[in-house]
Amino acid sequence: MYSIKTNDNLEQISKRLESSELDERYHTVKTIVEDIKNGGDKAVASYTQKFDGQEFDLSKAKPFQIEIRQQNLSEELCLALANAKNRIEKFHQEEFKNSKLGQGWSFMGDYQEKLGVKYTALDSVACYIPGGQAPLISTVLMTVIPAKVAGVKRIVVFSPPPINPAIIHACFLCGVDELYAVGGAQAIAVAAHGTESISSVNKVVGPGNIFVSLAKKYVFGKIGIDGIYGPSELAILAGKTAKPETIAYDLLSQLEHGSGLESVLLLSESQELIDKTKDKLSEILETSLKASLKSQQQVDTILNSLEKWSAFIAFNSLEEAANIINNYAPEHLELQLGADANKKILDLINNAGAIFIGTKSCESLGDYLAGPSHCLPTAASAKFSSGLQCQDFMKKISLVDFEASPDINKLIEDVALIARAEELEFHAAAMEQRKS
């Protein structure tokens, strides 16, 4: 049996991405982006051959483009993907309708002026789909569908070669416009700067490894990004009656992503539950290894994440637990405290990417087909950002219309006074030209 150790130092856990290696990796990313910015298709082909072992014929007009067509998958998987698509699409259609993103809003001001906001979809976006250790088929649905519902005109997907057939099928299912076999930092560079064969986009979204995240950070400003998505996180608040085996599998579902920087947090009023959960974790890992469901390297990576970046803490009150959660600000939060306690603590939680309420609301549902996008803020960024939605594929344009106002002389005077206080004479004069 494995000895399950945890850090239990939340301050130390919060620093898991403050690695000295990041500076070196950021330098590598900058080199890749600048090389592709200057070298175009040739540089993309060189890096793709280097990192993915894939060669391309640059004599073709679109050397990296993959034909988007229905794939020969099992009927069961096709039906599951179709069900997921329908659920995710319905959620974002409701978001679009209830947020009034289609019509915007306006009101009549004191001077009979019309003030408001117009929402407009981005012209183009790129969705990055990881395809290394795990081909994230579901991420196609979780990124493309809200973009489609928002009305984005051109949706491009990048994924490392060779692209998994199910990813191609998901692109077909969602109506993706272009699919390119380009991964890593080089894909983000292409999204930002374009090449001879691929046009740049307005924004790039989607998760990826540390090189993808750093590349998104580097190109931000040239194009928009959804956020810097780091390794997965899950926090569970569990009561005395929660099942240790269920909790153990939920925790492992996040730890198996395999970067070694995943983080999980278990909070319970019961130390006995915590101890039993640790025993179950050990038992499951050992069984999975013997059954060849996980390699020794994968098990060691999970144990490393538990020991360095995870905490199991007994709490004395719901208020104390809520404070810990709001400070940790997890990507995913499961509430398994019982109906009354779940309802009470829900009002106390301000910082989380997504909250799963009750024992049936497994986080894995959220990863695949619950409805909301699984692209969520990590590394405590849930304190200031949210999960991917339609509004992330739109921008707001302020509308100012004084044409029907009979008299704005008082406003002219006020503008002129403020402008001259800022020593901006022409601002004042521009207003005074309109005095009646």
Tell me what you see in this structure.
With 436 residues, this protein is an alpha/beta fold. Helices cover 45% and strands 14% of the residues. It has helices at residues 10-13, 21-52, 75-98, 137-150, 165-174, 184-193, 210-219, 244-255, 271-290, 296-309, 318-328, 339-346, 363-368, 409-421, 425-432, and strands at residues 105-108, 114-121, 124-128, 154-158, 178-180, 203-205, 224-225, 233-238, 263-268, 311-314, 332-336, 354-357, 394-401. The strands form three sheets. The chain has a five-stranded parallel beta sheet, with helices on both faces. It has a five-stranded parallel beta sheet with strand order 10-9-8-11-12. The longest helix is centred in the first third of the chain and has 32 residues, at 21-52. The protein is globular and about 85 Å long.
Widest beta sheet: strand line-up? 5-4-3-6-7
Enumerate how many helices there are, as a single number: 15
Mean pLDDT: 95
| Estimated helix fraction | 40-55%
- C-alpha termini separation: 86 Å
Question: Which sheet architecture does the biggest sheet show?
Answer: 5 strands, parallel
| SSE pattern, N- to C-terminal | HHHEEEHEHEHEHEEHEHHEHEHEHEHH
What's the gyration radius in Å? 25 Å
How does the helix and strand content classify structurally?
alpha/beta
Uncertain residue segments: none
Tell me the strand percentage band.
5-15%
State the shape.
Answer: globular
Q: How many beta strands in the DSSP annotation? A: 13
